[in-house]
Structure formats: structure tokens, C-alpha cells
Design a protein that fits this description.
Distance between the termini: 35 Å
Largest sheet: 6 strands, antiparallel
Strand content: over 45%
Number of strands: 6
Radius of gyration: 16 Å
Shape: elongated
Length: 75
């Protein structure tokens, strides 16, 4: 099982600073007897650009674990 970088997006926090959040996903590749390869995607993990765990609260909100600060994606 390996982790693959999916994407990065920037959110403006309540303190008007930019926070870059990176999304990673666990991926498992299984080779079948006929030689074909099957890719199974697993759980997603979020972190700040320079370290620090982030929890996804909803489709548009993330919470920084260390500080408890809630970041909201703005359109």
C-alpha cells in the first residue's frame, strides 16, 4: 500500500493568511493471475503544506488539529 499525492488547494484562514492543504490517498495495486493490474483506492489524508494534520469537517470546511482553527473554502 502506498500514498499518492492527489491535489493541493489554498484556503484563506480567519487570520487572513493563506493555508495550503495537501490531499493524499492510500492506493493498493493488485496483480491478477492473468497479468492485469487492479488499483484500489483507500482512505484520504489531509495535511498542511509544511506539516501538521488537518481533519475534513465537511465538503468546504477543514480543521487544523494542533490549533483547532477552522478553515473554510471561499468561492
Amino acid at each position: 500500500m502506498a500514498e499518492v499525492f492527489v491535489r493541493q488547494f489554498v484556503i484563506v484562514g480567519p487570520d487572513l493568511l493563506d493555508y495550503a492543504i495537501q490531499e493524499y490517498q492510500e492506493v493498493t495495486e493488485i496483480r491478477n493471475l492473468d497479468g492485469s493490474c487492479e488499483r484500489i483506492e483507500g482512505m484520504k489524508r489531509y495535511q498542511l503544506q509544511y506539516g501538521g494534520a488537518v481533519n475534513k469537517l465537511s465538503q468546504r470546511e477543514f480543521k487544523v488539529v494542533a490549533t483547532g482553527m477552522v478553515l473554510t473554502i471561499q468561492d
